[in-house]
């Protein structure tokens, strides 16, 4: 009986696939890349046609030896790494290392890790796609050249330990440019007038906003203009002039791409991009589901296509008809148009089996897995459902020649909205139905409110809106969004406050230096064009080394000029209100590997440094000293006594300042639970708790 070896990237993927193949198959993991460019040098021979100098990654030697040993004892080797450029490159390196002819049928790919998909792929192997490999090589070499030539300049001219990168530098620039816009923004005053009106028959109240004179829309620029209108209408009758009611069909959002999944996970379940991708990876690679065995729950999570396989559409229709009724299933399948330049090699992100509902798999998943799977499942099912029908009413009301406008809506048929409604970056005002109104009807004025407003600057980027901007501008690929954001945060170019991404002084100084001296590196159009060229390499239209050559000549000249001409940039540290207890200077904020910390500006004479102290306003229930907000090594927030390690009090739940337990006088904690907020006593011997505003003192 012939023996076969299948090599994948991760142990969890290996475990899942092993269960789908017979005893004649052995499945091993390469643990990602096994061969790459060296870390200690550029590893690209710019003098000899940009030939990469690949080496076995440090620490992977024994693993490669093990794979070589396993390869000797089998009749056939299948390389089953991920179905993208990076996965193709890993298979290419493995083929060279294990002596596999790359033109032989050794490569297997699957968009989902299910028994049928894996077995089908094993039965249909192909040769390694050299164009895919070359696209990865081109990106890797370009990124390495930029990083290794620019980073030393930043070390010398700005600060040690900095780095520059093709995509990360453009992402940082977008955030810095937005901050410049915010700072340059000049607010403009405007006023609104809101009339609260009562419909006499139903006695229902509703609000109408000032629109203008007659049918002509007008803006109220100051208080005098607003007062003139309100004075004119106060004693006048408010009469319904027009009532327009229309049915509006609303279509569902398409199933997720990598970008839209990251955006929606940020909006709806507060996941950072990195966490979203890590969690999605586990769902793709396989989870042991009670009653179903080990199964990959979602399709491949790095994609920018919205295409859905027809068998998945049939399965979704059957599920929708059975569980929601035939009226919720559209007559024909929904097909969504992917964005321009989208790669259509993979489907959209969807559940591999629509009957594995979130409720059914919940007990087999971690909390994070459940949240993300529920989002993916609901988005996919909704995308295959019938339109919603919303009845929209717009009413114009006349008062002394001035028009007030009210709008309202009600859902006539919920359609896809029964399952899922897409999130938004800005808060939308919820519309309710208006009372029944008739043209010519006089309404009663209950209240008239004049309100001053000022135009607002553009909002800072969040992870969701930055990912959207990167995708729309054609910067990077689905696989690069999360690591790009992680990198610019880790380097201290950007900081996160709540959900907003704010450039640090370091980020702005570095971006300005790059804009002045390496304009192409931080130019959105240049970077997007480079991405298009990489796509052309992937499709076999151009050789990969040609785009590297075209880039390198002008870039090399800019680097040499910059090394000579750029003067040292002095960074100004933000001064805190904390005095150094060793030398008396006011300490400054510094950015380190684990975020901001306090340091003495007298370095190197005074080397005092300490974490930023953030008090909760609550005293420790064990020793009475202040409880501080702290961060674990993984970045998770917890609350602990300042006298740690002498005092071991800590909790993951937020202490509530200004209140005590009414039962025992102890510290109250707000627990992070789904749904209603839950408040409990920190005293383990006290059972006081509040849920949804209700007290329980059993």
Task: Using brief descriptors, characterize the structure shown.
698 residues, 6-stranded antiparallel β-barrel, 17 helices, 31 strands, 34% helix, magnesium, EC 5.6.2.1, Topo_IA_cen_sub1, zinc
What does this structure look like?
There is one protein chain. This protein is an alpha+beta fold and 698 residues long. The protein is 34% helix and 24% strand. Strands 8-9-15-14-11-16 form a six-stranded antiparallel β-barrel. The protein is globular, with a radius of gyration of 31 Å. The N and C termini lie far apart (68 Å). Monomer. Residues 3-115 form the Toprim domain. Its EC number is 5.6.2.1. This is DNA topoisomerase 1.
- In total, the number of strands is 31
Computed over alpha carbons, the radius of gyration is 31 Å
Q: How can the largest sheet be summarized?
A: 6 strands, antiparallel, barrel
Report strand order across the widest sheet: 8-9-15-14-11-16
- The number of helices is 17
Structural class: alpha+beta
Mean pLDDT: 90
| Distance between the first and last residues' Cα | 68 Å
What is the 3D form? globular
Query: Which regions contain 5 or more consecutive residues with pLDDT less than 50?
Result: none
Helix content: 25-40%
Beta fraction: 15-25%
Mind sketching the topology for me?
Layout: E1 4-8, H1 11-20, E2 25-29, E3 35-36, E4 44-45, E5 51-52, E6 55-56, H2 61-72, E7 76-79, H3 85-98, H4 115-123, H5 130-157, H6 166-184, E8 189-198, E9 205-213, E10 216-217, H7 223-233, E11 238-250, H8 258-269, H9 273-285, E12 287-289, E13 293-295, H10 310-324, H11 358-361, H12 367-383, E14 388-399, E15 402-413, E16 442-454, H13 463-472, H14 481-490, E17 494-497, E18 500-503, H15 505-517, H16 524-538, H17 544-565, E19 575-579, E20 586-592, E21 595-599, E22 609-610, E23 615-619, E24 626-631, E25 637-641, E26 650-651, E27 654-660, E28 667-671, E29 678-681, E30 689-691, E31 694-696
Parallel strand pairs: 1-2, 1-7
Antiparallel strand pairs: 3-6, 4-5, 8-9, 8-16, 9-10, 9-15, 11-14, 11-16, 12-13, 14-15, 17-18, 19-20, 20-21, 21-22, 23-24, 24-25, 25-26, 27-28, 28-29, 29-30, 30-31
Helix pairs in contact: 3-5, 5-16, 5-17, 6-14, 6-15, 8-12, 8-13, 9-12
């Amino acid at each position: 009986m012939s023996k076969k070896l299948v090599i994948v990237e991760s142990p969890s993927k290996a475990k899942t696939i092993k269960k789908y193949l017979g005893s004649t198959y052995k499945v091993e993991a390469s643990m990602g890349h096994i061969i790459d460019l060296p870390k200690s040098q550029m590893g690209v021979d710019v003098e000899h046609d940009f030939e990469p100098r690949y080496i076995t990654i440090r620490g992977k030697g024994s693993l490669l030896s093990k794979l070589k040993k396993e390869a000797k004892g089998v009749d056939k080797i299948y390389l089953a790494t991920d179905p993208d450029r990076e996965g193709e490159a890993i298979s290419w390196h493995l083929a060279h290392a294990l002596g596999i002819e790359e033109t032989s049928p050794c490569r297997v790919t699957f968009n989902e890790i299910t028994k049928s998909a894996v077995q089908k792929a094993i039965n249909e192997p192909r040769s390694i796609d050299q164009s895919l490999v070359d696209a990865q090589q081109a990106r890797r070499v370009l990124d390495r050249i930029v990083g290794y030539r620019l980073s030393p300049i930043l070390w010398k001219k700005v600060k040690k330990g900095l780095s520059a990168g093709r995509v990360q530098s453009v992402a940082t620039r977008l955030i810095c440019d937005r901050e410049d816009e915010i700072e340059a923004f000049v607010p403009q005053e405007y006023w609104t007038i809101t009339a609260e009106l009562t419909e006499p028959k139903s006695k229902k109240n509703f609000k109408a906003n000032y629109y203008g004179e007659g049918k002509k829309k007008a803006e109220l620029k100051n208080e005098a203009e607003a007062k003139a209108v309100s004075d004119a209408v106060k004693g006048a009758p408010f009469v319904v002039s027009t009532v327009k009611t229309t049915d509006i069909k609303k279509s569902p959002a398409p199933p997720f791409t990598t970008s839209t999944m990251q955006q929606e996970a940020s909006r709806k379940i507060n996941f950072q991009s990195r966490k979203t991708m890590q969690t999605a990876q586990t769902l793709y690679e396989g989870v042991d589901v009670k009653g179903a065995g080990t199964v990959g729950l979602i399709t491949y999570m790095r994609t920018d296509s919205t295409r859905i396989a027809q068998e998945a559409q049939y399965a979704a229709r059957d599920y929708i008809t059975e569980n929601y009724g035939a009226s919720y299933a559209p007559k024909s399948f929904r097909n969504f148009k992917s964005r321009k330049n989208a790669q259509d090699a993979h489907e959209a992100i969807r559940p591999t089996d629509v009957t594995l509902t979130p409720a059914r798999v919940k007990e087999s998943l971690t909390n994070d897995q459940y949240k993300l799977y529920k989002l993916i499942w609901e988005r996919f099912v909704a995308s295959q459902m019938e339109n919603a029908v919303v009845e929209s009413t717009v009413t114009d009301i006349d008062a002394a020649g001035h028009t007030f406008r009210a709008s309202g809506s009600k859902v006539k048929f919920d359609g896809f909205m029964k399952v899922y409604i897409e999130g938004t970056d800005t808060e939308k005002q919820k519309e309710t139905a208006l009372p029944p109104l008739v043209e010519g009807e006089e309404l009663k004025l209950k209240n008239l409110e004049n309100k001053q407003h000022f135009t607002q600057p553009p909002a800072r980027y969040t992870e969701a809106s930055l990912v959207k901007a990167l995708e729309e501008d054609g910067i990077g690929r689905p696989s690069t969004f999360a690591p790009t954001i992680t990198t610019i945060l880790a380097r201290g170019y950007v900081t996160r406050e709540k959900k907003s991404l704010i450039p640090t002084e370091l980020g702005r100084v570095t971006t300005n230096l790059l804009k002045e001296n390496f304009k192409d590196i931080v130019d959105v159009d240049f970077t997007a064009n480079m991405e298009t060229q990489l796509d052309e390499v992937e499709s076999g239209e151009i050789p990969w080394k040609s785009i590297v050559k075209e880039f390198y000549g002008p870039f090399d000249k800019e680097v040499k000029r910059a090394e000579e001409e750029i003067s040292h940039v002095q960074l100004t540290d933000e001064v805190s209100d904390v005095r150094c207890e060793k030398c008396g200077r006011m300490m400054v904020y510094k950015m380190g590997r684990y975020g901001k910390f306090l340091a003495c500006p007298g370095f190197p004479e005074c080397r005092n440094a300490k974490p930023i102290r953030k008090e909760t306003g609550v005293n420790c229930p064990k020793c009475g000293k202040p409880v501080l907000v702290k961060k674990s090594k993984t970045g998770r927030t917890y609350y602990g006594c300042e006298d740690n390690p002498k005092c071991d009090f800590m909790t993951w739940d937020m202490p509530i300042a200004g209140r005590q337990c009414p039962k025992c006088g102890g510290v109250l904690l707000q627990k992070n639970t789904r749904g209603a907020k839950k408040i409990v006593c920190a005293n383990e011997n006290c059972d006081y708790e509040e849920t949804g505003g209700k007290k329980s003192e059993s």
